[in-house]
Amino acid sequence: MHEPVAVDGLLLLPLTLIFLDFILISSLANPTPITSLNVLTYGAKPDGSKDSTKAFLAAWEAACASPNPTTIIVPKGRFLVGNLVFQGNKCTNAPISFRIAGSIIAPEDFRVIASSLQWIMFDGVTNVSIYGGVLDAQGSSLWKCKNSGGKKCPTGAKTLLFTDSNNISIYGLTSINSQKFHIVIDQSNNVKIDGVKVSADADSPNTDGIHIGKSHSVNITNSRIGTGDDCISIGPGSTHVSIQGIQCGPGHGISIGSLGRSEDEQGVENVIVSNVDFMSTDNGVRIKTWGKDSKSFVRNIVFQHIKMKMVKNPIIINQHYCLDKPCPKKESGVEISNVRYEDIQGTSNTEVAVMLDCSKDKPCTDIVMGNVNLVLQMVNGSAQASCNNANGLANDVVVPLTFSEKKNTKMIHKTSCLLLLPLTLIFLDFILISSLAKPTPITSLNVLTYGAKPDGLKDSTKAFLAAWQVACASPNPTTIIVPKGRFLVRNLVFQGNKCTNAPISFRIAGSIIAPEDFRVIASSLQWIMFDGVTNVSIYGGVLDAQGSSLWKCKNSGGKKCPTGAKTLLFTDSNNISIYGLTSINSQKFHIVIDQSNNVKIDGVKVSADADSPNTDGIHIENSHSVNITNSRIGTGDDCISIGPGSTHVSIQGIQCGPGHGISIGSLGRSEDEQGVENVIVSNVDFMSTDNGVRIKTWGKDSKSFVRNIVFQHIKMKMVKNPIIINQHYCLDKPCPKKESGVEISNVRYEDIQGTSNTEVAVMLDCSKDKPCTDIVMGNVNLVLQMVNGSAQASCNNANGLANDVVVPLTFSEKKNTKMIHKTSCLLLLPLTLIFLDFILISSLAKPTPITSLNVLTYGAKPDGLKDSTKAFLAAWQVACASPNPTTIIVPKGRFLVRNLVFQGNKCTNAPISFRIAGSIIAPEDFRVIASSLQWIMFDGVTNVSIYGGVLDAQGSSLWKCKNSGGKKCPTGAKTLLFTDSNNISIYGLTSINSQKFHIVIDQSNNVKIDGVKVSADADSPNTDGIHIGKSHSVNITNSRIGTGDDCISIGPGSTHVSIQGIQCGPGHGISIGSLGRSEDEQGVENVLVSNVDFTSTDNGVRIKTWGKYSKSFVRNIVFQHIKMKMVKNPIIINQHYCLDKPCPKKESGVEISNVRYEDIQGTSNTEVAVMLDCSREKPCTDIVMRNVNLVLQRINGSAQASCNNANGLANDVVVPFTPCLKRDMLLI
């Protein structure tokens, strides 16, 4: 009865094996059999009531004794077990894996398993893996006992313990409601934990997610942990631990320690914690040691690439940890050294965001921080740092910066906790700071010492100036400390002409506020000014100019309102740094950099009401080498403005909105004004701003210029004017109405994506006298926020180059002639051309003229009522016959057309492009276009492109007919069909409400589809988004598709298809097939589907073939880098597909081979997340899976897999995994 059964499956290779693409697994001979043991066979019951402990142990004994790899199967159900101990001392050490489809639960009475210290223990085992499943220790009643102060509550049992073990893997396991620690790795080596979920209430005591002690080479990746204690804790004796890709919260964060409770306790070293998100945790990254004598240590630790959101103690070293009563009140003997914090960003829920509380006896050494920016969650406060007995190095941005403060003296001689190196210094990993001899002393001055009052009432102006005078005269670096509180100051001028130029830094923990009466500081043009200073830095703090009453005065039209004061001005200064400062409610500009060089601004927050006049966030003028990074700016004017005489400006990592965007200008108000050059604006998000990236110049004579500008990697969301050049800017009354003399040249727009709130998304309104030249655009895709419109572009007096995708494309339109000879505003180069930075387009001689045809000229009407079919065909005939490239313009409006057939058999094959600013609509009566199988068809064409526009087939009435079961409903027309065509491009097109398929590529080659939007109701029948059949070299990128059928379907005869950057949902996913309906149907091969997000779709990636005899095939397919969110069938091969009645009930003859699934992550809405249902007659072969982790959307279940007649290879993580019933096992 208990004989092991050999089964087939996907072999899990060692994690160290190099992954080989499309490895010929079928050539491997003599596979090692795998023994499969089902716990049901040994008497386990899936009812959650009968004790299955003995059954699990019996299955283990059989697996332990087997010389072959063994799988212990725990099928769907709830299995009640008591304490389990799986001993490895008598095992053969052949691999044993647990494949858990159901849940293993503990008894409800917590005392049953709490009598032992662990519920499920593996002791002395080797080569054990756990895949999937749920462990539910039902510990909530014990938590309640402990939290109520019960004295008889047991300590509780750890849920899962591996001790004295090697080569352990845990994939996709869910552990909930543990009595104590959930997963413990003790005295074990070479452990991999991936894709686990750990969950317990935030108030559940001592329920650490994963605890590591005395273990080596432990890797934890891609896991979600929320508990009542540490998400992950690392105890004594642990080395070479890697923690990456973790979501932590609620809980106490990730902790090293506690260490040093006993004197001879081992230390911890060589730990990396990377790419972790902390959410509402009590701590972020923590090191904690007991205040006792100890020989222990913590060294060689890296915390990097970490995001904190509302975390109480983001960075903490606590060397006075104690749970005893009373505490020994000694200094910790644990030595902490070589700890690096790098790229740690986010918000702190407490004012002290960084606390380094080290031991007096053994101070922390070699603490290195770089690119740390932690701000207080509340906008009206500033994060602080506290540092005791710690030494090290701060490189690049560190906000807040730590220091040890001593009060009651006017000048304090000290060594900074973290020495701030020049920003140009190369960051050295684990630099031996302790070897730096005789560090320069730093003078610390507290404004309280000079009479400042933190009550927000007494004028502290003189105190700040007195502190400055002392700092200015000091030959040593000086820190002026502004502690917690609200400091009222009037106009402050910090003069630098008498300073020694030793570095001066302001460390601001509190707020500096202006008087409520706006007239007090408005009597000057600036509130706080630094004039002629060098080597000055500002860290943290809030500047509140209380300007709202002045805004109100101005907005009400008051004639006696003063201009207002700028909040912070640096003029005629050098080597300036501003980190983590918050500026709110400025009367005018918030931060101004004027006639200054080498300025760095990082991590600032600027905030003013959207209707606050002239409150630019940061303004730069007559300055050189200004770098602004990682800042959030929302104002009533420009987020950042760049004025005359500014060069070498870099702006990166900005969130802008509300406001007027980022502007160069205005320029050219005076004739001899200087120009702006060498500016880069990169990685900026604009949200609901009036402009995106703007260049504005006055319509006046000028010798000024704008040149060598780059706008790149930018996202626009509901922006009114995403890209704008305005050379007719004017605020005077009356305006001079002249052409601007400012020369604009060499401006590049690259990788700019998003939505426009206005129809004109790109406006290049340049000067007639000095046209814009060398404007370069590449990968620009701006769509109208509303689905029923199309973004447009307007271009006057501008010339340049458009490479790759540019949507909308700009052109200068001339009406009233049937054929317009013109040079396109931006010359569209072949897509294969290499993009050249700032290519000298002006040097291109004698460009080929482009013919422009407007459908209005041929009688089209944009009213949505008159039939414009003939007008479109007439324009096509002219374009078709032209020897030159031709653009057919469909302007703004709604154009009603019937069935359109654009024939290419008589064309010259010169490029033809449709530039659609409006919508093309079908008749409301679905029968009109349904009489044909397609609405708009291109037949036998070459070199045709479509840019922008909306195609609305108005198919909803046909859907209703079909869904109601109407027998006389026609099949319906495909919206857009290209057949027997070559070199086709479709950019930025929107297709809605198709009767049947939206876009079809049939018997065509070299097709590029980018940035399209496809939309139809989820219950619209057969409305595939894009269908490909019998076509070669088809590339689909960066598109959003939601329909009632497949987002993309790939039919017979399709090869070399690439699908990347797709958002799919609702719909039926991305399908290869159906194939094999007819016997001689062609196959599909060489398909790549990559970087796709599926949301609430019926399927994810699917291959479907008919259950019929066939000579067809599917081979060389890659599905990779895919995210699934609430998808019903994430991975599916269905070789028994059938829509006929009755179905033939035969096995499919389609051969499926060489299919790779790699890096597929997410959630399944159904229990069967992977279904490989292949043909008995032609089994699927060479199926390769790697790094697949699909979990059930519900936390109280586990995703499963079903496999029939499939063979292949599983490498690295594959969750869920279920052995096939019939397959041959292959082994490398």
TrEMBL record:
Task: Tell me the compartments it is located in.
Answer: Secreted, Cell wall
What is one Pfam family matched by this protein? Answer: Glyco_hydro_28
Q: Which SUPFAM superfamilies match?
A: Pectin lyase-like
Keyword tags: Cell wall, Cell wall biogenesis/degradation, Glycosidase, Hydrolase, Membrane, Secreted, Transmembrane, Transmembrane helix
Output the InterPro entries linked to this UniProt entry. Answer: Glyco_hydro_28, PbH1, Pectin_lyas_fold, Pectin_lyase_fold/virulence
- Chain ranges passing through the membrane: 418-437
- Gene3D superfamilies, alphabetized: Single-stranded right-handed beta-helix, Pectin lyase-like
Q: Where is the active site?
A: H252, H660, H1068
Lineage, top-rank taxon, reads: Eukaryota
Record's keyword annotation contains Hydrolase: yes
State the family named in the UniProt similarity comment for this chain. Answer: Belongs to the glycosyl hydrolase 28 family.
Name of the protein: Polygalacturonase
Naturally occurring in which organism (per UniProt) = Brassica rapa subsp. trilocularis
Phylogenetic lineage: Eukaryota, Viridiplantae, Streptophyta, Embryophyta, Tracheophyta
Q: Which gene encodes it?
A: A04p039020.1_BraROA
